[in-house]
Design brief:
This protein is an alpha/beta fold. About 40% of the residues lie in helices and about 15% in strands. The mean pLDDT is about 95.
Length: about 270
Amino acid sequence: MIIDSHAHLNFEAFKDDYKQIIDNCEKEKIWMINVGAQLQTSRRAVEIAEEFEKGVYAAVGLHPIHVSGSDFHPEAFNIDNYRSLIKSSKKIVGIGETGLDFFHSDKNIENQKKVFIKHVNLAKEFNLPLIIHSRNSKDGSRDAYNEILEILRDVQDDKLRGVIHCFGGTPEQALAFLKQGFFIGFTGIVTFDKTGQIAEVVRNLPLDVILVETDCPYLAPDPYRGERNRPEYVKYIAKKIAEIREIDYNKVEKQAVINTTKLFNL
């Protein structure tokens, strides 16, 4: 068994075959959490989760690239809409994805921060983990990881927990997030990263804080790079982590399930 802790079968790319994909995943004992990026896709994630008795869950939130002021289908964050959604389903296991994205927009950074803090408060209100997206500016002048760490330190809440999704920061930043009570998520990028930085992070982290995630339909791992990603490919991420750490694949798979189950209370 393995869990894709961050998928998007609630996105348009899977509108015609999400049921078939989930059926295939059930046969292969693959569970998943479909993560919202806007109110519509958050609702869709819940609808899909409710169709299945077990193994399919949802997270709800507004992705920072869609926060008001961006160029990517911006929308206002109405916290009451998300409160109502969370109360409507026991299949919602996380808040997000939320966070800061300096890569796609430098126009609305302060608004992104305000909306991120609202997600933090929502997570505290419902005792749910955060799913945090972070991406640095193109020129490297602004580091989203450091600014997210500053916000989390300001909150100073020992009960706050979550995962840093699709981690691409430094080993030092990864350890700093661990001190804040967060897990570290790795996507297919780990299978084709040329910098060696992600592999270094994987080598130096305790195995009991690592999650595996596809971010499908994006970031397909080798050997499927460039194709539409699928939850089934999460195994390739776990295999690469096992290779980097020079341990048995089954050990990574088993521990990733334990970690995901613990964080999201599955």
